[in-house]
Design a protein that fits this description.
The chain is of the alpha+beta class and 138 residues long. Helices cover 39% and strands 14% of the residues.
Length: 138
């Protein structure tokens, strides 16, 4: 559930999760929640959930910074609300691809900015030379 919905929509999602035998308290707000084909036929809900110990307490992740998350699936018993949109975080490879595109744009912009700065500097020097009555070098 990537976005924080108004109370009525949040309640509808919670009811839908319960109807599909998922404890809504186990699903992080920004966790993956989407439908996928079930190998046995039909569809299933794929979602991220807090990893719990035998007493129902959340485990801490390997960095010790937040709750550990695990991927789970369950058969789709009840369809989601009509307005619901699935959410799946981008993969590491997708993020790296975007980062590569941003770096390429920054390099292009950097080259363009360098050219623009050279043109501006040349214009300033031309004005300075002109003001002093000196012929600028070619």
């Amino acid at each position: 559930m990537p976005q924080e919905w108004p109370d009525d929509r949040r309640d509808a999602i919670r009811a839908w999760l319960k109807a599909n035998n998922i404890n809504p308290s186990d699903v992080p707000i920004r966790g993956d929640l989407y439908l996928e084909p079930d190998p046995a036929g039909g569809q299933r809900i794929a979602y991220e959930a807090f990893h719990l110990d035998s007493q129902g307490r959340k485990h801490v992740d390997e960095r010790g910074e937040s709750a550990a998350i695990e991927r789970r699936t369950t058969p789709l018993l009840v369809d989601p609300p009509d307005w619901w949109e699935p959410y799946r975080k981008p993969t590491r490879d997708q993020l790296l691809a975007v980062l590569g595109r941003v770096k390429a744009l920054a390099d292009e912009a950097g080259e363009m900015n360098t050219y623009i700065e050279r043109v501006r500097l040349r214009a300033v020097l031309d004005l300075a030379y002109e003001g002093e009555g000196i012929q600028p070098p070619d």
